[in-house]
Amino acid sequence: MVSEPRPRTRKLTIIAQDPSVTVDGKILTAQIDIPAEEIASGPRGYRVHVIDYNVSTGTLYQSGVYNPLKNGHYPDPFEDAAKRHQDGVFLKNPQFHQQNVYAIVMKTLARFEFALGRRVNWAFPGHQINIAPHAFADANAFYSRHDQALVFGYFQGQTGETVFSCLSHDVIAHETTHALLDGLRERYTDPSSPEQAGFHEGFADIVALLSIYSLPNIVSRLLDVNSPEKELIDPSELTVDKLQKSILFGMAEQMGREMDSGVRGSRRDALRRSIKLPPLTSTDDSDKYENLPEYQEPHRRGEILVAAIMNAFLGVWRKRIEKLKRGKAVGSKLDRQLVVEQGADAAGQLLTMCIRALDYAPPTDVQFCDFLSALITADREAVPDDSKYGYRAVLLESFAAYGLHPPASAETHGGWSMVDNSDLTFDRSHFESMLRDPDEVFRFIWENRVPLKLVEEAFTKVISVRPCLRVGPDGFTLRETVAEYIQMMTLTPAEVETLDISTPKYMPKNQEITLYGGGALVFDEYGRLKYHVRNRILNKERQTRRLKFLWQYGFFDDEKGIQNPFARLHLQRALDLPTNRKETF
Amino acid sequence: MKKNTPPTKASKSVSSDENAKAKTLAKKPSNPKTSPKSATTSVTAPSSLNIRSYQVGFGDCFLLTFNYPKAANADDRMRHILIDFGSTALPPGTPPDQMMRVAQDIKQQCGGKLHVVVATHRHKDHISGFTTQEDGSGTGDVIARLKPEAVIQPWTEDPAVLDPVIGSPKDKMGESKTLTEDNAPNLQAMQSMHVSSLMNMHAVSEAMLAEVRHISDERTLKQPLGAGLTEKIRFLADDNRLPNKSAVENLQRMGKNYYVSHGSKLNLSKLLPGIGISVLGPPTLEQHDAIRKQRSADKNEFWMLRAAAQKFWGQQAATGKMLDESTSDEKFISDEDELFPDADTFNQVIPSHNRWFVRQIRAMRGEQMLGLVRILDKAMNNTSVILLFDVGGKKLLFSGDAQIENWEYALSLDDDVTQLKDVEVYKVGHHGSRNATPKTLWKNFEHKSEKATEKIRLKTLVSTMEGKHGSRANHSEVPRQTLVAAFNESSEYHTTETVAKEGKLFEDIEITFP
Predict the structure, then answer these.
(1) What is the pLDDT of residue A479?
(2) Interface test with B, best of A44, A48, A52, A59 (most B CBs within 10 A)
(3) CB of A456 within 8 Å of any CB in chain B?
(4) pLDDT reading at B183 higher than 60
């Protein structure tokens, strides 16, 4: 008897966007592929554990049953309900809600692992993230590292119906990305700057949006709403302006009205604002946006990043459409399916680039400009010849439109500079250990602290050593290693002042201030140091700016009430709650 | 229908109404023997003032008695202003009928006639004493029988602002979407939305009380929420729950209403001869907007945030109500689930592999609820009326529980800052909490002095009770020790805590006018 190989993926039914998106009055569902596994009750799998406990009512719901492999495939418990359009099941059966979050979280995780070619760890010590799909009666949903969880609230919508945040694809993908990003760059949740907090929000939005745009049927649905279902499409429908209108604004319209909850801020308004954010004109200062008071608020700041990436997406897609036109008479129609596929492909590639770029981003205090250089570097590594679609040129242009340029330390092509290895000592560390062992990497760093320009007095720790695998342009697999280290110093305001870093005027003399710095070290396949992407701990300008922001936003305030950074941010956004510490006793 | 009046208009109409009112007053003096002329001409300015600071535990109650010994008519020799009358907690050993004892003392002190009542804002610790009983035996009944001529409250209390006709944001302003497209907001609708947010905050507080009762209940839950967190949520939610309806109605009914905002002209000179009153807060929404504009390039930012906040509180309130209905104590005990009536649940035992998370998420929810009640508590505090009295060149400042967001408008105006320099009596904001005496305000006071013998030395008055609010561990204790130290050092400091320790009902502070 020959045994069949066990399937690598399984299909589960989810709600495509959220229950307000319907076709012929019926909720639009989709069956998605996720990594296959034998699901225990919960559902509980190798990375996700759904615990359907409702704090507000003290109820723990039982989970559905996931049958084992049968006839070469795993049954999808809600396949039948989807075929029969049984909307009552989707809304009123908590077991479907459990499946919906399980499947979308697994799908998002799989997307990250696909881009990085390795397992992505959670930021907490544990393999399974806890998910509460009906955590509490509250218009809120967030990721909590402390509780190792994603929690989704439910609330009463404007027309009196119950709205479940665990049924919104966009919200789930967004919150899952917070968790994944936290696993990859654990210091990005540190209180730092509007831009770092904005990066978390903007990046989560970008992943949620590009994931959706990389599905051809969604792109097809949004494109030329006026003349759907035709095989050919008029190129005049595909100008940047028209694509903005159909694809980007169309998406904003699709975002469920009910999910316009106060706590998360209006996602639709946020996306609309991102798209409408005018590029800088020749008379504008390049730091125009970052200096505007409203962009000190992290969600608003994140909108700038979303704007840059979304416009780059349209830019790349346009270039691909231009290619389709080649060899055809001017104005002749294009194959609609090809146009759609080019769009979905562009979104998918851009998403992969964005995720890969994280390996090349500094481990602390990230700025949008750093991310731009990380994007360029990551892409240069993967695709040295950019002449086909010119992703990098489009990205540089799109970021520049919002005053975002590669930092001064970057090369003229926008990527990071390569490290000169001639000053470094490799003699006392071992190549094999360097691939996995933080102690070994620390030994290397300590040995080379002078050429690497580390601050010797600071506490230094290697927080991760990860393999970075990809297929090189010649078809061979490349294995590089990315290690992150951080440096920390806890000082009094007076001590901080001696480093030429200014402290806020009314800060108490005995206030403890912790300064952070750090770097990402990228080693090539021979163990040589290729890139050193870092933020120096003694960067005066950066640290001064950070302390000023933290003080204004009350991070030194002990009475925070809500400790979870995401829950707090959501509230601050919804209710406009900057603190005014200088007036407080 | 035009019966609704926005506060800015109201303040104008207040002055004209007041003239009319003053005329009627003059026509119908309380004592028929006194001719109206002599009443207004002989009494020009008070010669002294007694501030009676009552011991109401965690609450506020001040009776200001202005003396006019030269007045020809005996009835005109005193004028009484009651500023707040409320309590949420009494110190141990205080008689349970303390509030009634206070009411009776006010009655006696006033000789049966109160002139002005100020209810700075609607927190229980400021207005619970105005509660009435059907049989007329409530403390609020005692006050109402003193027939105050004028009742001063913040503009947010004006029933006209919450008129259901303008209270429907959808009709008047459209959806929040229209706001982002540079449409000028409809001010009336925005005011009504703001007030409806405040109303929704009460509903949220009620729901929080129900929920915290549930998640801290050992009968229903094996791992209840800790007592410390529970107590904090309860204390704040209780102070913010819907105020006793009778107290609110009593205030609406007992005298002529003045719903004020920064800059309102009160024109109470006939009722309170020689006493100037400036209203320094709360700001109107337009005034808030002016402050916001200094910080933002987006001219509609403020209004968008208002609309978002209104939506938020509306949603929270509706959600809380949904919960309130499904979490009555009887239902907790029953096995039926309100959210999914047909769902299978674990009734008795939480499976072992879920217990850690259940404990975590419960604590997380507790923390989240505390964060919310803190926010709404602050919003309510910031509706406080701030009054600056100017009598014979001496200034007295009563600021309710106003925090910086209320103060910032007045403190942004040079004229106000100048006016505030020579304050001689400061009723400390919010029971001495750390965020209700802005440092800018404190630094601006010129009569601070370390010398007890100083000819003019600032007097600070606080009504408070230790151990009820905040904690020393995180520097949020009320009263805040660093603030108390500053008061002790640079002013003549009076606290009702001393009154409580001595077992007294009140402390009198005498002020004489040159």
Answers:
(1) 85
(2) A59
(3) no
(4) no
